[in-house]
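Hey, quick one: can you model this chain's 3D structure?
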Amino acid sequence: MGNQGSRGLAHAKVDTRAGMPGGTTSCYFRTRDALLLGIAERLDGRDTGALSMLSELGDDGAAGYSGTLGLARLVMLSGTEPWLTRSRAR
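Sure thing. Here's the predicted structure for all 90 residues.
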């Protein structure tokens, strides 16, 4: 999703990219809709984890990740790799 968008999404391509045997993705996600939902849930989990980490770093004022400055830094990071790929997938 992050590299080719939803039009380039196929079960076989996910298997290849993940280095998994053919058919693995379709075993877990039977339809394209199920695959898209799985991707959305994974992105949500990764984003929630990142925001939780930001919250923890925000408790340490010396780290520079508190308040508006912390949020601005997170937004800036979303435009650089490896977070850029996730932003594109979103």
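One thing worth noting: The mean pLDDT is 81.
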